């Protein structure tokens, strides 16, 4: 009787072991897929951020040939084209992403950004208008402000710039754009205040320093602002002030500022030298 029961027990044991082996293989397979998926996600992130932009474009296009409907690859291609400054292609790529069933509001904002880069302001405005007002994000309001600026809707632009500045911890770019908007409207005092604010948040932002000098020069204030600057930047800012002075008929002051630019620059400053010679030749 002992032998009669031995066979069923052995069979049951074998079946149990087989079941454990299959379960273990499935878990291993899932773990492998998780690793592959994680590696792919990491590689995609690298390609979209620090890899050479044109190499990233090739990478995502190659993957899209195999999986044309994967929004991850579509999005990666669109972002890589922006990084490569291939804006016309990027606008087309972002349109494709925005039409995908899995597209997000962030994708639609990026589509609007790509359209602005190629001068399609009306299309960009339509894309932004279609995004629910409940979606509140820095990039969305920054673009809304730029569109309002393009339409010369100044009150709306100011409102959007203010909202955008409040939604980021690095608002220097917003304040610089807002200041430039004020500069183009002729509100030089307002522009000066906003450029100063931009530099407060990012002392290295030379564009804001140069714009600040333009705003001051437009008010015939030809003194350099008290901001952090390198000797090269100081020379370039003197040059900007000189051109502003000459444009407004203050030629004598302009000559002096050009000489300051030449004397301050740590190397030969050809544009300033050329401008000063041209003025002196005219008497």
Automatic annotation (TrEMBL):
Signal peptide interval: 1-23
Coiled-coil residue windows: none
UniProt KW keywords: Signal, TPR repeat
InterPro entries according to UniProt: TPR-like_helical_dom_sf, TPR_rpt
TPR repeat residues: 172-205
Top-level taxonomic group: Bacteria
A Pfam family recorded for this sequence: TPR_16
Keyword Signal: yes
Designated name of the protein: Flp pilus assembly protein TadD
Organism: Rhodovulum euryhalinum
Highest classification ranks of the organism: Bacteria, Pseudomonadati, Pseudomonadota, Alphaproteobacteria, Rhodobacterales
């Amino acid at each position: 009787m002992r032998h009669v029961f031995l066979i069923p027990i052995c069979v049951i044991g074998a079946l149990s072991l087989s079941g454990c082996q299959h379960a273990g293989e499935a878990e291993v397979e899932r773990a492998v897929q998780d690793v592959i998926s994680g590696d792919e996600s990491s590689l995609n992130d690298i390609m979209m951020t620090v890899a050479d932009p044109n190499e990233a474009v090739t990478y995502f296009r190659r993957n899209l040939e195999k999986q044309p409907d994967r929004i991850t690859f579509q999005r990666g291609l669109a972002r890589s084209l922006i990084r490569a400054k291939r804006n016309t292609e990027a606008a087309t790529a972002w349109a494709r992403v925005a039409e995908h069933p899995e597209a997000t509001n962030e994708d639609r904002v990026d589509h609007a950004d790509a359209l602005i880069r190629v001068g399609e302001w009306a299309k960009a405005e339509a894309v932004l208008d279609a995004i629910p007002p409940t979606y509140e994000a820095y990039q969305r309001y920054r673009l809304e402000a730029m569109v309002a600026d393009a339409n010369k809707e100044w009150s709306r632009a100011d409102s959007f710039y203010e909202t955008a500045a409040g939604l980021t911890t690095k608002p220097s770019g917003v304040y610089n754009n807002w200041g430039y908007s004020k500069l183009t409207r002729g509100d030089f005092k307002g522009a000066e205040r906003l450029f100063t604010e931009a530099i407060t948040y990012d002392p290295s932002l030379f564009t804001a320093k140069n714009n600040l000098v333009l705003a001051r020069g437009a008010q015939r204030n030809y003194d350099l602002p008290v901001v952090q600057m390198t000797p090269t930047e100081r020379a370039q800012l003197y040059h900007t002030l000189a051109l502003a002075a000459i444009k407004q008929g203050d030629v004598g002051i302009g000559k002096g500022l050009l000489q300051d630019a030449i004397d301050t620059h740590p190397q030969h400053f050809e544009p300033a030298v050329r401008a000063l010679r041209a003025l002196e030749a005219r008497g």
